[in-house]
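input
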Amino acid sequence: MKTVVITGGTDGIGRGLARLYLGRGDRVVVVGTDQTKAEPGSLFFGADLELIDENKRLIERLASEFDTIDVLVLGARFQRSTRTETADGLESNFALSYLSRYLLSHGLVDQLRRAADPVVLNFGGAGRFGPPRWDDLQQRTRYRGIMAMIQAGVLNAALAVDFVARNPSIRYVLNFPGTVATSFAGDHDEAEAAQIRHLRATGKPVETAVREILPFLDSGAPGRPVAVSEGVVIPLDPQASSHADVRRLYDYTQEVLAR
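output
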């Protein structure tokens, strides 16, 4: 029996993966803010992952209750049409869609290393959108909800490269699932809400997205991150995963956490 931890596990692809692993007889922990949406049979851990201390509290709880984590799915997302800062003074997409993934993957590395074939799945995009906006990582200017999510995906490409370099025995999969008929959790203005209604009507089923990513969770070789777009392996954009950018992002993240 595997232990599977899924952030964003109460909706969409995360909930689809929770259902699949439960069907296999695995122990599934879903992390979210609404217990009523958790898949029956899963363990629910409540946490607001936009906040640094909430991530640290979650890491402590998971580490105290589970000696081993076989699969760590980083899927929590919440898109906002208007720029919002967290209580930590960070742009909300940066905090939830990048920094939380950094904290959880590094914070649970001991539990992952104890697994026979550990894998991290990051629904953070596949790094095909150019370099990070180094002049404005907190999106203080030219903010657009969708672009803020894309920038978080670019940062996750660099996160994956750095994480695997430090932990070569842990498999790491970046995934861009394409347009999927999910909840599109967020706080949207009318223009984005109209786009989302269209995407919900035209997106592929969650079950299809789960089938596309499952082969990369069940098998693979450690030592380098694998980027997957709609079930197909693609190269990481060198502009988002160069050695210089990887180091620059790591140093910036340490500065943010030290404030």
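quick obs: Strands lie at 3-7, 27-32, 43-46, 71-74, 79-80, 119-122, 171-176, 186-187, 226-229, 232-234.
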